[in-house]
Amino acid sequence: AKDAGRDTIRFFNPEMQKAIESRIALETALRQALLRGELQLFYQPQIDQHGKRIGAEALLRWLHPNRGLIPPLDFIPLAEETGLIVPIGHWVVDTACAQLKEWETCATMRSLQLAVNVSARQFHQPDFVAQVRESLERSKANPARLKLELTESVVLENADSVIERMHQLRALGVSFSMDDFGTGYSSLSYLKRLPLDQLKIDKSFVRDITTDPNDAAIVRAILAMSRSLGIQVIAEGVETEEQQLFLLDNGCFAFQGYLFGKPSPIVDWRSQATQ
Ligand code: C2E
Ligand code: CA
Ligand code: CA
Ligand code: CA
Fold first, then answer.
1. What is the ipTM, given to two decimal places?
2. From residue 246, how far is each of 91, 242, 249, 273 by CA, in Å?
3. What's the pTM value of the predicted model, to 2 decimals?
4. Contact 176/213 with Cβ under 8 angstroms?
């Protein structure tokens, strides 16, 4: 009883009270952000071994009226907990499709692929396939240009239903990349069963690739394995030419990272592309 009493006192301490209030405030603000058009997609280029732009990843930003630009890691975990990630994720896919359609009018952008992040909770919604289909139909974007980035958390449970759903989406024409590859818990045996087009080597492995023999070994193993499975690989978080060289030497031919461009609003990017 004494302990319970202490816990109760703890619960009402002002810091905790404040934390709860600010969480609720954040949730309310995030709910409104979607309606008020405060969410925006930034785009980061993906390039091939010749330095040619082959695509982009759409990365979510929240342009808060008072707090400025809020990075996704500050609000996506809360969005996932509260389920807000579902309407937000729907908005992301819808906006990405509209963007793809717009790129078709620009010679330098027309052939780019656009990758969007899909959270596990979003992927497992019963109407996820229908929503992607609707976004594609409404925008009239070419489905072959849309790539869905899934994380290993998507396949944590019931791989069979995940595989079935991936096939339904593939039938629409979209492709798949396994994001943050190597950081999750998925079994390697899933890898050959999942209809994947691409693996994305996480930036945590790329960071010390030229100095840490363990990271170098992991990346080499990922590349060798993908080669034998016939899956393409892209490395994220490439910041230096040394990192890119290491990757090239070991058979990685697609890159994303600050070395080639930071995520930016499309307006900036298009003016660069047409210069
Ligand atoms: P991610 O999917 O692994 O995205 C890569 C992150 O690395 C991005 O952070 C990107 O800005 C950052 N990055 C890119 N190049 C470099 C580099 O050279 N060095 C370093 N250190 N970082 C680099 P960002 O934009 O803050 O996004 C963080 C995470 O938020 C993403 O990680 C993704 O998991 C999530 N996220 C972003 N947009 C969405 C979205 O629309 N939906 C969902 N569900 N998640 C999203
Ligand atoms: Ca990603
Ligand atoms: Ca990552
Ligand atoms: Ca991620």
1. 0.97
2. 37, 6, 5, 27
3. 0.92
4. no
